[in-house]
Write a structure and sequence with these properties.
Elements lengths: L1 H11 L5 H16 L6 H14 L1 H14 L2
């Protein structure tokens, strides 16, 4: 669990890694399937922007607050 938490925090901080590459590709595929991206390249760009801008971390923090509020 500690290693996974460390890797996830590094991902959200924008650190390059094979873990980040896998997350970007999976997110890109989901974006294409959802018709939010035209192709995998655009999906990867969108996912990377979400991570690198801090938007992904903000969403994770919001979900954590909601799930811990009860």
């Amino acid at each position: 669990p500690e290693e996974n938490a460390r890797d996830f925090k590094a991902l959200l901080a924008g650190e390059p890694s094979a873990y980040r590459d896998a997350v970007l590709l999976n997110a890109a595929a989901a974006l294409v399937v959802a018709d939010a991206a035209a192709d995998l390249k655009q999906g990867v760009e969108m996912a990377a922007q979400s991570i690198d801008s801090g938007a992904a971390a903000d969403k994770i923090a919001a979900v954590a607050r909601i799930t811990q509020a009860g």
